[in-house]
Amino acid sequence: MVKILASKLRDVELITDTGIRLGWVYDLSFDEKTGELLVIVAEPDEDLDTSEFVTDHEGLLLIPVSAVRSIGEVIIIDSSKLAVKSKLRGIRHR
């Protein structure tokens, strides 16, 4: 396993596996009890319509770590695992 310092991820671009530019890493969110990395907090791309994406109160994207496919010059996000509001609404209604 390759170790990556969190400080090296700041401002790395996030792109989906379908080529959608999501934005850039702003911060990381951890579970304070377990230390588990939960989400990547991202500054959205200026052309991205964030209305269907899960965001925080400041409008920053919340990307689940489980959606990360690869990390390199950019971070590739598996679009099928990306949390979007329409998927979350479907889960709540079941």
UniProtKB/TrEMBL annotation:
PANTHER family, per the entry: PRC-BARREL DOMAIN PROTEIN, PRC-BARREL DOMAIN-CONTAINING PROTEIN
Classification via InterPro entries: PRC-brl_dom, PRC_barrel-like_sf
Domain PRC-barrel: 2-82
Organism: Thermococcus gammatolerans (strain DSM 15229 / JCM 11827 / EJ3)
Highest taxon in the source lineage: Archaea
Gene3D superfamilies: PRC-barrel domain
Protein name: PRC-barrel domain-containing protein
